[in-house]
Amino acid sequence: MNILDGKKLRDEIFLKLKDKVKDLKLSLAVIQVGDDEASNVYINQKKKMCENLNIQFKHYRLQESILDDEVIHLIEKLNKDDTTAILMQLPIPNHLNKQKIIDSIDYRKDVDGLTSINAGNLLLGKKGLIPCTPKGIITLLKYNNIDLKGKRVTIIGRSNLVGKPLALLMLRENATVSICHSKTKNIKDITLNSDIIISATGKNGLVKEDMIKDNAVVVDVGISKIDGKLFGDVDFDQVSRKCSYITPVPGGVGPMTIASLAENIYEAYLIQKK
Amino acid sequence: MNILDGKKLRDEIFLKLKDKVKDLKLSLAVIQVGDDEASNVYINQKKKMCENLNIQFKHYRLQESILDDEVIHLIEKLNKDDTTAILMQLPIPNHLNKQKIIDSIDYRKDVDGLTSINAGNLLLGKKGLIPCTPKGIITLLKYNNIDLKGKRVTIIGRSNLVGKPLALLMLRENATVSICHSKTKNIKDITLNSDIIISATGKNGLVKEDMIKDNAVVVDVGISKIDGKLFGDVDFDQVSRKCSYITPVPGGVGPMTIASLAENIYEAYLIQKK
Questions:
Q1: Residue B233 designated active-site
Q2: What ipTM was reported for this prediction?
Q3: Do residues A217 and A196 lie in contact, with contact meaning Cβ atoms separated by under 8 Å?
């Protein structure tokens, strides 16, 4: 069994990018509404990445009670100024119109790939900014020479941030893709026939040894915190004995998400320069 | 075995729509470049539908050698005037930038659902105009009380017009979705475990009796012409003995595509009225 080491690859990506971006005066604006604890952790990771790569980090912390128009007003300001990349930290409070706010981001600065235009470009096979987690997974698999063409790939989870965009990226790579979710019956029948299984549900212990075939590749996107310790969707101790490759949690997909964000900031710069 | 009768349902849909649209002065502009024979047949079907529903039909036939800017200039004119719906008849010659031309269509008039914005809305689960063929397939299955929730659905083909948007619509309906294509190995292993199989390849005879389980639902989107006769992807004589429901070719998905186009024109009107 081999570990798919996201940290190591992230550091390599940072090293290459550092040189490329050093004189470019790039900047990332992160907009946060409220004070979600998990968001604070994620934002801190982004801040560290920016410091590491000499990208200016701007953190806009808005009060919980803010209205759509005020958030959009800020975004429009950032669209016009020299900010390279804009990111709306999710989740945001329910009273806000999430998609309307996200769609107010200039798609050339949308480093989360969540505006309608970037999502559409992904569906239609056009160039554009791609959500960081699916992008990072593809990068990690390719770096480890895991061939995707013709492979059976099963994705558990159908979110806008992971499951659906990842399915489209896997199709681009000529994989045969199955998408399972909470309404799927007998999920084991599908995963047992899969070369690559990617779980993105946040349900600790969902993927067990008896669900995967020998030498499968297992990618764990899930994250849950139990008694202060982080767990993924995959029962690592059991599954790691059976599979050929596996991502650890933490240290697998998480660092790759940050690495892809850094790549997207640089790509946003290139797109805007055109 | 039951026939999924697209003609009958199309006529019902037309009947309901006829009354709704009769005083609305709707119009459909179809832009054709060159003189593709199959396109002429499809355009004629659209023309008939418009005549039937009292929708003004405008056919712009442009010469093969036309340039991007000239096509886009026409589209911009139609975006601004009172045309309800604009449709770029595909295929178009290779020297033209297909996606640039399509993206110049106002997304509120894009009744093929092929602009980046509408494709993105579909991916993100937002409202928008949906490609006619996948929309028609969902309508036909639902009309026949075929439950999709938790069902194993296999789609053969990954085009922008059918395979990918249909996969997303099936996910919305809580189906478990697998997408196969030309690079898929042992496609039979997947189809044999599927409750619903939808083939959209244009390869006559691809889906055979030994590829489906008893009482599967089979939807045939393929179309190929051999010695002047139309065939689908499915070996109808064999497969129809084994399945519970099947679409005929012609008379299945084809009429539903036209019915969905009519619905999309009405929907485009409603979106623009907002």
A1: no
A2: 0.96
A3: yes
